[in-house]
Design a protein that fits this description.
The protein has 434 residues and is mostly helical. A hairpin with a 2-residue loop joins strand 2 and strand 3. Helix 7 crosses helix 13. It is globular and about 75 Å long.
Amino acid sequence: MLAVLKNRTYRHLFFAQVIALLGTGLATVALGLQAYQLADGNAGAVLGTALAIKMIAYVVVAPIATAFTEQLPRRAMLVSLDLVRAAVALCLPFVTGVWQAYVLIFVLQAASAAFTPMFQATIPDVLVDEDDYTNALSLSRLAYDLEKVCSPLLAAILLAVMSYHNLYLGTVVGFLASASLVVSVLLPDPKPSAPRSIYERTTRGLKLYLAVPRLRGLLALNLAVAAGGSMVLVNTVVLVQGTYALGERFTAIALAAFGLGSMIAAIFLPRLLKITPDRSVMLAGTGVLVIALVTGLLVDSYWSMVALWAVIGVGYSLVLTPSGRILRRSAASEDRPALFAAQFALSHGCWLITYPLAGWLGATIGLWATYGVLAVITALGAIAAAALWPSVERDDSHVHTNLEASHPHLVGAVSVAGGYRHSHASVTDKYHSH
């Protein structure tokens, strides 16, 4: 897996991602402490609103930002967005009112909503070999999971010698380091596409996404994994400190178990995906999530919950990690930024549904009943994905009527009445509208 880091461009991008994630993790800890100070007894409400602002920014801003930036130089845009995020983090320690925090959080998350899809769409153009790209996806999953473990530990060490306001300086340093690593390499810019209006560019990613059967299946999988993941991310603290009457340290251990399960799956996925189709692996992941959530109905101790969280982490990674491969093969290079932006918006839209649902169910019908409801949603997502994503993706035979015989796309095509017939795997691009 680590062999992919021999590619200098990818190596710099990967470490830029890792450092920015650590900086973001420090900001998350600092924001929680600042919310407690600003809102006194309403810190939970402030943090809940901040998370909602984050998700709304992700869902709304990503497609719009991509429409405006998809033809701009990628390196300049990524560096500019890192600098915007660093500037916002620099302002956060000076916030004196909750409304100021909300405004800055929206700007920060809007910049992230523009940055992340563009960054993700750049990697398949840097790593053209599918095995290398698969390894990169697993490394990316490991980076996200390690951040969940390392950021709280690093924050705890720093808080022993400084105030929480100084944690934001770590965030600033993270974004500046990310910008410097991005600017140190040459990145492939997106290929020119046909001129389109802002509206067409904003909606194009969603139209491309929903036109491909395997991506409609991926959307259902996004809902399934959001339902399973929300049980962990929303209700861990309630279970640990409420049901089991344990302290904050045990909450951190439980969340670390979830991250560890995800990391273990990510390590073995490159080998597994060489011999097993993506669809089978991802549906198996949803199966793991359903079984784990149903098993949650029987869990009656803290350590059995920790083991269950690790299993949910495995299923979570089995579904999420291969998704970049599906996106990569579903559109041409020039359309990937729009497609990754659509995935970013739609997947976070699923979380925007399941986050509050998991919290509301836990508070109203009880945590054990919540396991059951989320298991049903996860199972329905898996069933929908299996129905929408054909198990055998046959080559699509079709006729092009508006391309010349010498066009490179028609290599091997057969002349028929009115055009040229050929077949290949389903894809949406400028030559194929559906």
